[in-house]
Structures are given as C-alpha cells and as structure tokens.
Amino acid sequence: NLIRYLRRLFKEDLTQYLINRFKLGTSTYWKGSTMFWQIDERMNIHAGKIMLYDSDTGRRCKHPFNHIQWAHSVAKWKDFRLDQCFFGLHQINTHEAKSICIVESEKTAVLMTALIPNVIWLASGGMNLSIENFRPLKQFKLILFPDVGVEDRNGKTPYQKWQDKASLLETLGYTVSVSSVLENKAMIQQREKGYDLA
After folding, report:
1. Residue 92 parent element (H or E)
2. Buried-most residue among 62, 82, 151, 161 (CB within 10 A)?
3. Is 94 exposed, middle or buried (0-12, 13-18, 19+ CB in 10 A)?
4. Cβ distance 36 to 68 under 8 Å?
5. What's the pLDDT score for residue 83?
C-alpha cells in the first residue's frame, strides 16, 4: 500500500529508486503491509518493522487497532534480542552527504529523500534516541526533526526532549541541531495529532 501511495506522488523511476535505496519490502502479515528493515552501516539487519498504510492517503492504519508488528514476533524467533538501529543507517556508506537529517517516521524519511535528496534521511522509528545509536554518525552534521506534540507527563514536548538529547550529544563532540520549523508553525490541532515533516 505504501508503494502504491509513492507511485501516486512520484514517477516510477523515483519510486523504484526509493524502494531500492531503503530496501522496502512487502509483508503478507497484513495484506499490503510494508516491511521496514533496520540495516546498520555494516549491512547487518537488526530488525524488521511491519506497518500497514492506506494506499490513498499514505496514512498509517490505526483502526480498529494500531497496525505495527515486528518480523521476529511474527516469525516467533526464539532467543531473539531486539537491538534497534536507525532506519536507513546503511545509507551512510553508499551515499555521499555531509549532513544527516533524522525524523521519527520511516515513511517520512522515504518521502523526504525524494523531496530533499542532498542529505541522508534516517528515522528513529519511535525508539528512544540512545547515545549508542548515534555512534556511527559522529563524523556527520546532524539535524533532528522531531514530531510536534503536546507536553507529556514530565511537562516536555517532543521538541524539548530532542533538544535535551542534542545538548547531551554536543557535550560528547557531535555537531547537532534541532530544527524548530515544525515547532514554530504547528497549530494546536496539529500538535494534538502529532504531525511530522511529511
């Protein structure tokens, strides 16, 4: 379904390029669901996330339940230990760019690669941004694009949480900034729905 949506937005050659670049797959778990492989800089697969999208709107299917599943859960791999990496991390060895932009959603990373191709787009996939996950990115200029949102129970928005992470990364020698473009433009309804760059 996601690939059908991409074909509605882009020409076939660009859609095929995005499929190949991000190694997008299709799962049979839900008819038309997308497989997002988390592949590291050494081409090791860390995980496969299965998500279902609406082919007309490109939005994730959340009704009657949130359609997200993991390949290792579906396959029932015994003794599997989930050790996530950024979605799209494998690109850092094959695509020349001085800057890396990090968003939350895998779909957004794919779309932004088509729209702004002169940087490498990665997605955190909703995982917490652990310092360990950033280690392969130390030589790059990093720009973080958090989703907009409302304050959590600790009184922090996604933007504030990612700012805290950026400050910590700076103390460790990373060159990192947090984009305020969404934070400055989002209206309250968009915050409540958790809009992102896409």
Report:
1. none
2. 161
3. exposed
4. no
5. 92
Distance separating alpha carbons of residues 10 and 95, to the nearest angstrom: 21
Half-sphere exposure of 124 (CA within 13 A, CB side): 22
- What SS3 state is found at 143? strand
The overall pTM is greater than 0.90: yes
Instruction: Assess contact for 103 and 112: CB atoms under 8 A.
Output: yes
Locus of tokens 């299917």: 61
| Mean pLDDT estimate for the chain | 95
At residue 120, the 3 state secondary structure works out as: strand
Phi-psi region of 23 (alpha: psi -120 to 50; beta: other; left: phi over 0): left
Tell me the per-residue pLDDT of 114-141, one tens digit each, with 9 for 90 and over.
999 999 999 999 767 889 999 999 999 9
